[in-house]
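Extended Data, panel c. Modelled sequence:
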Amino acid sequence: MASRDMRKGKSGGFRVIYLVLEREKEVHLLTLYPKSERENIDAAEINEILIKTGLLS
C-alpha cells in the first residue's frame, strides 16, 4: 500500500497483513507496518496475532 507521506519509491509504503475467511465471507486486518521499518513478518508473529485476536486458538 503506497503512502503519500513516505515518498521513497516502493519502500515508502506499507505492508498489509490480512486474513480472508471465505466460508464466513470475512476479511480481517491483522496488522500493517511501514516497509521502511522492517522487511517481512514471520509465520510465528502472524500466529501470535491470530491467537491474540481470537482467530486462532
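The chain has one domain: 1-57. This feature is highlighted in the accompanying rendering.
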